[in-house]
Design brief:
By secondary structure, the protein is of the alpha/beta class. 37% of the residues lie in helices and 14% in strands. Helix 16 packs parallel to helix 17. The longest helix has 21 residues. The termini are far apart. 33% of the residues are buried.
């Protein structure tokens, strides 16, 4: 083996290549195990010898993952904390002393007034702990905002040293920490700066054509620079959502002008993304609540699509969209469809609204709770009615494509088929390519007209 040239060794390693778990498990119930796999052939091969490591290295980090730091690093600075700092001035670091002097000058009152109730909601700033801030580190109520791990800089140096920047094709950013300050208005600016730093560092050090973010809904909203628009998140008990963004070969994009996209600090505007995928997981828990149909699931996806529709021109907007959710409410699907209607560039749309083969949700009494199967399937059917109306009214070009992942189950495939046949009866031609896949075919429209079938006026 050692006598073989590198070209043959590279050919051998190509046979070990396989899709990463962030692709194969993207449609599964979201969890922090998205990037975990029992099979790691490239990692094993890289440990055989230095020569094999050199051969495998470009492929080894093609699909990289970055777990956000779990350590809380932010302190709410209020009048009481400043008073406590006054008793330990000689022990404060330079950074802590600067905070003390700056904040102290803003308080007109003495220490006596600082402890009155008027200060409870007055002037609370968030400050990030720095190296040497022993006093701040000892405060019991340290808060968490999303931030990169300290190891990221080491990884970035490694990528630069071995010229791997353009070999890193995909990056998964993930955390299982929930952001708990979304109702604190003074946290908005620090959150914005923290998130901007995350994406600025990642896109400065790396150049991925695919980015996946996996995080609890509250955290994901912050990482996407958007809101949740829901006070019912507790009812859905969604531990994590996924979003996937992919960009095409940028050399093929003909930009209409320099301002065809804001190109600002938000992730959605960092690159000319051509695909948006989203997995919000199961909504089943909400079916066990009183008047479940009135509950609203988190709306980050809806807001992101609207932002694309309003702020991005057609030359670099998404052409592909996929959504995965287990028995979402039809009202949620209606909201998503309403936003998709505003995006003029869609060519491929994919939905999965029922559990996959890996999911035992329907047969697990603990997961089902008090949810009634009839309600679940009723919402599923109502959702597909909404989806069918979208394919009947959206201006898809020739060979526009619809994929239903639910068609892997024969009984569901039959029901989805019925909805697509209804479109043909109404004069909108969709040609079935294979099980679960249809293509827009305008010639079918003409055939229906010639046989006397017309659209309603």
């Amino acid at each position: 083996m050692e006598s073989l040239p590198n070209e043959l060794l590279i050919q051998i390693t190509s046979h070990l290549d396989r899709k990463p778990p962030s692709i194969t498990k993207f449609a599964h119930e979201p969890s922090s195990q998205l990037t975990c796999s029992d099979a790691t052939p490239f990692k094993s091969l890289s440990q055989v010898s230095w020569r094999w490591r050199k051969v495998v290295l470009p492929s080894l980090f093609r699909y990289s993952r970055i777990e956000l730091d779990k350590d809380p690093q932010w302190i709410p600075i209020d009048a009481r904390l400043i008073e406590n700092m006054q008793g330990q001035l000689t022990k404060l670091s330079n950074h802590e002393m600067q905070i003390y002097q700056k904040m102290r000058s803003k308080f007109k009152s003495s220490s006596t007034f600082a402890f009155e109730e008027v200060f409870d909601e007055l002037l609370i700033n968030l400050c990030r702990i720095q190296e040497g801030d022993e006093f701040l580190r000892s405060v019991p109520y340290i808060l968490w905002l999303p931030h990169l791990p300290k190891t990221f800089i080491e990884f970035a140096r490694f990528v630069s040293q071995y010229n791997l920047k353009h070999h890193v094709k995909s990056v998964v950013v993930y955390t299982d920490k929930e952001y708990e300050l979304r109702h604190v208005s003074t946290a908005d600016a620090p959150l914005s700066r923290a998130v901007t730093e995350i994406w600025s560092q990642i896109f400065f050090r790396l150049d991925p054509s695919r980015v996946v973010v996996a995080a609890p809904p509250t955290t994901l909203a912050g990482l996407l620079d958007t809101q949740m628009l829901s006070s019912d998140a507790w009812a859905f008990d969604m531990k994590m959502h996924y979003i996937e963004l992919r960009q095409p070969d940028t050399n093929r994009i003909v930009h209409s002008n320099s301002s065809c996209r804001p190109w600002d600090t938000a992730l959605i505007h960092r690159r000319p993304w051509s695909h948006l995928g989203y997995n919000e997981g199961s909504s089943i828990t909400a079916y066990s609540t009183y008047e479940y149909h009135l509950k609203q699931s988190p709306k980050m996806l809806y807001l992101i699509i609207l932002r694309l529709a309003k702020e991005v021109q057609d030359c670099c907007n998404i052409s592909s969209f996929s959504f995965v959710g287990v028995f979402p409410f039809s009202t949620n699907i209606t909201t998503i469809i309403r936003a998709l209607h505003k995006v003029r560039t869609l060519r491929t749309v994919q939905f999965q609204l029922a559990p996959g083969t890996e999911n035992n949700l329907l047969s697990n009494p603990k997961l089902m709770g008090r949810a009634q199967p009839h309600d679940l399937w009723m919402e599923w059917n109502e959702s597909y009615k909404v989806i069918a109306s979208f394919f009947g009214g959206y201006d898809f070009q020739e060979e526009g494509e619809f994929v239903s992942s639910d068609c892997s189950t024969l009984s569901l495939a039959s029901e989805v088929d019925d909805y697509m046949k209804m479109l043909q009866k109404r004069g909108t031609g969709w040609r079935k390519i294979e099980n679960g896949k249809w293509a827009r075919d305008h010639s079918f429209d003409k055939e229906l007209v010639t046989t006397g079938v017309t659209n309603e006026a």
